[in-house]
Amino acid sequence: MNTPSTAVSPGIWGFIAFFVLAIALWLLMRNMNARMRRMSYRAQERQQEAEAEAAGRRAGEDDGPVAGEQPPGAGPETGQGPEGPGAPGAPGAPGVRPRQR
User: Fold this and answer.
1) How confident is residue 8, by pLDDT bands cut at 50, 70 and 90?
2) C-alpha–C-alpha distance, residues 81 and 69, integer Å
3) Quick check: 98 pLDDT over 70?
4) Region 78-89: what's the mean pLDDT?
5) CA-to-CA dists, residue 11 to 5, 19, 51, angstroms
């Protein structure tokens, strides 16, 4: 009679293959944990920077105009740029033609 044998095992090659897969999985998990820690640390840094910047903006609102902001009364409607009348790019400055529509 041909009955299947119950004493069949994967042998040494099955053990070696399983061991290699286990080592690979361990290395992948270790690498993933390191990357997750780094990502979390960078996110915390960005959040702290954003909060500090927001706090600086809130504190700077009472101090006056922000750098790069034009003072009141100086703008395209008055013909004066931040450098004064006739500044390059100001309406009516030499060499500046109005846009044609």
Assistant:
1) confident
2) 11
3) no
4) 54
5) 15, 13, 60
Contact call for residues 82 and 74 (beta carbons, < 8 A): yes
What whole-number distance in Å separates Cα of residue 25 and Cα of residue 27? Answer: 5
Q: Are 74 and 87 in contact (CB under 8 A)?
A: no
Q: Which residues, in sequence order, are bridge partners of residue 85?
A: 80
Cβ-Cβ contacts under 8 Å for 96 (sequence gap 6 or more): 88, 89, 90
8 A C-beta contact, residue 44 and residue 50? no
Give the residue extent of every domain in the chain. 11-61
DSSP the chain: --PPPS----HHHHHHHHHHHHHHHHHHHHHHHHHHHHHHHHHHHHHHHHHHHHHHHHHHTTT-PPTTPPPTT-STTTTEETTEET-TTSTT-TT-PPPP-
